[in-house]
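Hi U.,

Before I forget, here's the chain from the pilot set. I'm dumping it here mostly so it's searchable later in email.
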Amino acid sequence: RVLGSLGFCFAEDRPLDAPEQAYLQTIAQQCATALGRIQDDQARKAAEQKLQESQSVLSLAMRGGRMGVWSRDLSTNKVWWSHELEEIFGVPRDGFAGSEAAFQEFVHPADQDRVSAAVAAALRSGCDYTVEFRFRHASGHWRWMEGRGRASYDVSGKPTVLYGLGIDIQERKRAEDALRKSQAQLQLVSDPAPIYTASLDREHRFKFVDRA
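Structure:
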């Protein structure tokens, strides 16, 4: 590739002899090497800057969506969590122990089998999985999470790495619980009343009907 041009000025007009040509060629090659390194370094820094910007935007999006990413090496069971996922669990940055057993300690005992079964079924079928479970926040409170994952496979079809998302759905679960309580209260009020009460959505599906 062409990096630029190099000019030499002489006090007199004469042909250059072989040693002078070799000397100037050496200088040109050294300049070309230096310029090439500078340009490569500038290109590398520009690429690193773009990568940093992309990672910053992705991190902002994940924090806004209350989600984090993770991966698990199936041969060693070593687990990696993103900083966003550590924040959701209330774990200090780089404070996660990095193993499948360490993750299971966060999962509610009543949900551990369901999580393991969802992962095992996905590995057998080669499909994605989605599972909801409770996890213990570092504060000691139980919260709800939606786990999504998929595996990558080697040429023989053996799963090698499992990776996915952990999404904090505590607010969604709280809203669903409030809706159920509201519907239960409405049921108590409407059932004894001598009228028919129903609610439909825009697709004309019944969302609520009283006993009558």
